[in-house]
């Protein structure tokens, strides 16, 4: 089999041509969102993973994807205004809802399970509180500042807005990195989102929601860093 996915390709590019590769990257904790500009080879070396094995796995999955004739959306070919709408109404709305729900549930299990899992839950509560604050402020800045500026640029090609947009993008990517670092700490504290054996259903639900939020944020950040911001 001729490899279609190679070590020299950037992670973001691989996800663009083969969206399901994100599942494989998630499995091996390969950062394709904030690290979307890194090559696959660089990422595998950093994780001390076998390049031959992972590339084989990716190409086998990609081959099945091609053979299935499945349709997918290559966001790099879409209108940037449509991408921003998709980010807001799909990822921003989901993030806002989940942050609120997880916050309430996490406080509940902190109170109920403090006697048995206090240390872990206190760390998680603090980390999530920081993540929630960072993300809520981040989403507002995108919706009220960055995206309107980008919309103005894409519709009028006003070059005067470019310098301001580029500075916003740098700040936004820095904030993405901060959120990514907090999520990595949450992974450690939760043992990769594995609830304790004696956990109740609410406890397990919190971990499941955190895991789903992380995966959605990876897609969200990938769309911004690797697709939308590259259109400027």
From TrEMBL:
<keyword id="KW-0479">Metal-binding</keyword>
<dbReference type="GO" id="GO:0046872">
    <property type="term" value="F:metal ion binding"/>
</dbReference>
<feature type="domain" description="Hemerythrin-like">
    <location>
        <begin position="85"/>
        <end position="232"/>
    </location>
</feature>
<dbReference type="Pfam" id="PF04405">
    <property type="entry name" value="ScdA_N"/>
</dbReference>
<dbReference type="InterPro" id="IPR012312">
    <property type="entry name" value="Hemerythrin-like"/>
</dbReference>
<keyword id="KW-0408">Iron</keyword>
<keyword id="KW-0963">Cytoplasm</keyword>
<dbReference type="GO" id="GO:0005737">
    <property type="term" value="C:cytoplasm"/>
</dbReference>
<dbReference type="InterPro" id="IPR019903">
    <property type="entry name" value="RIC_family"/>
</dbReference>
<dbReference type="Pfam" id="PF01814">
    <property type="entry name" value="Hemerythrin"/>
</dbReference>
<protein>
    <submittedName>
        <fullName>Regulator of cell morphogenesis and NO signaling</fullName>
    </submittedName>
</protein>
<dbReference type="InterPro" id="IPR038062">
    <property type="entry name" value="ScdA-like_N_sf"/>
</dbReference>
